[in-house]
Amino acid sequence: MSVKRHPTGYLGEEYQRLVRESLNWELKELQTASEPVCTVDGREVIMLCANNYLNLSTHPKVVKAMLEATEKYGAGAGSDRSIAGNMTVHEELDRHLAKFKRAPASLTYQTGFMANEGLIPQLGGRGDLFVSDELNHGSIIDGVRLTHADRAIFKHKDVEDLARVMNEAEKHKPPYKHIWIFTDGVFSMDGDLAPLPEIAKIAEEHGAGVYVDDAHGEGVLGDGGRGIVSHFHLDHKQVHVEMGTFSKAFGVVGGHITGCEDLRNFAYNKSRTWLLSGGVPPGVATACSAAISVLESEPHHVKKVWENRNYFIKAMQDLGFDTGNSETPIVPVMCGESKKAKDLADFIWKKGFFALPIVYPMVARDKARIRAQLCTKHTREQLDKAVEVFEEGGKKLGLI
Ligand SMILES: Cc1ncc(COP(=O)(O)O)c(C=O)c1O
């Protein structure tokens, strides 16, 4: 007799295990636009955990562009870009992004996750080596997992360890044909920056490619928000793939890569996520292009998010909070154990502030934190009130 199976019973069992171990996501519902003052689960709160760093999701020029393009071209692209859905607005967006990044070519994807998962596995195979920072984003990890290349990890931001891995790699027989180094630009849990110039230098010594995921850096770092390559005054001959997303500072949705013309041609011919999935709606592509135009013509947004970030982090540090290694508008408020992070998030939520506790397994067991994210439209009053509430909660929980 065949084994008795229940097709879906284990799904519930697994979910119950997640609940028992407090590892399940409890989804909150955003009932208004993503703005500093918004309604979440029926409660008016100040948003402190959106990726909408420049508040472009509600910028009138971005919204207007989306509406007008939707009226003109319809709600959807009608097909994968590889077949019949490659609209003029997609091509214009690709060219606009390349111009903004001051690079030869860009290719836009449906999401940043799809860019990483589609392109990374194609960059190598048997006889190649992929080297990755231990704290890289899950979409890089998954992209690397899909390849047949050998894999190696270097310690977080540790260029000496990277050099060690690369020197070891040179002993491999037969020699590796291609080596790629993958790193986040801004690490999303800590808000710290990859040592990109040093990584590029090591890569050059070994003839390796450099792939940086700048999802949290663009719109925030570099000249006019051009991202981490611009921030470090590097170019796309030193950093071969600059990957990013339109879902964070650009305020819309979509992923992208930037580099040389060969990279673009290779990427759209080889990335299965690009080839085998629908193109983004024309309204989305046009809104992404409008968001780039806003960055080109209104540089004050980038300046303002930094002013807010610097103001908030100084006030928190003055109170004695440990803000980790933040170098960007991602400011971790370190709490130690998971329970403290959850209790602090709960405390500030009850006082009208929405920020996420980041706990194990997203970070190490003793490195739980609240991840605060600053945006352009936060007012001084909102930030002062946030600091006051963190102070009250931090004292209650013995954090300061
Ligand atoms: C570092 C990093 N890379 C990639 C992504 C994926 O981007 P997208 O939202 O466009 O899929 C994210 C989003 O969380 C991210 O934080």
Widest sheet: strand order?
Answer: 3-9-8-7-6-4-5
Going by helix content, strand content and strand pairing, the class is alpha/beta
Broad CATH class of the largest domain:
Alpha Beta
Shape, principal axes of CA atoms: globular
Helix fraction bin: 40-55%
List SSEs in N-to-C order. Answer: HEEHHEHEHEHEHEHEEHHHHEHEEEH
Number of strands: 13
Average pLDDT score: 97
Ligands present = pyridoxal-5'-phosphate
Give the CA-CA distance, first to last residue.
64 Å
| CATH homology superfamily of the largest domain | Type I PLP-dependent aspartate aminotransferase-like (Major domain)
| Percent in strands | 15-25%
Examine the secondary-structure arrangement and name the CATH architecture of the largest domain: 3-Layer(aba) Sandwich
Low-pLDDT segments: none
Characterize the largest beta sheet: strand count, sense, and whether it forms a barrel.
7 strands, mixed
The DSSP helix count reads 14
Domains, number:
2
If you compute it from the alpha carbons, what radius of gyration comes out, rounded to the nearest whole angstrom?
Answer: 22 Å
What would the CATH topology of the largest domain be?
Aspartate Aminotransferase, domain 2
Topology:
Layout: H1 9-20, E1 37-40, E2 43-47, H2 60-73, H3 88-100, E3 105-109, H4 112-119, E4 129-133, H5 138-145, E5 150-154, H6 159-169, E6 179-184, H7 196-206, E7 209-213, H8 228-231, E8 241-245, E9 255-259, H9 261-270, H10 272-275, H11 282-297, H12 300-318, E10 330-336, H13 338-350, E11 353-354, E12 356-358, E13 368-373, H14 380-396
Parallel strand pairs: 2-11, 4-5, 4-6, 6-7, 7-8
Antiparallel strand pairs: 1-2, 3-9, 8-9, 10-13, 12-13
Helix pairs in contact: 2-11, 3-11, 4-5, 6-7, 12-14
Bound molecules: pyridoxal-5'-phosphate.
Residues 111-113, 137, 139, 184, 188, 213, 215-216, 245, 247, 255 line the site of pyridoxal-5'-phosphate.
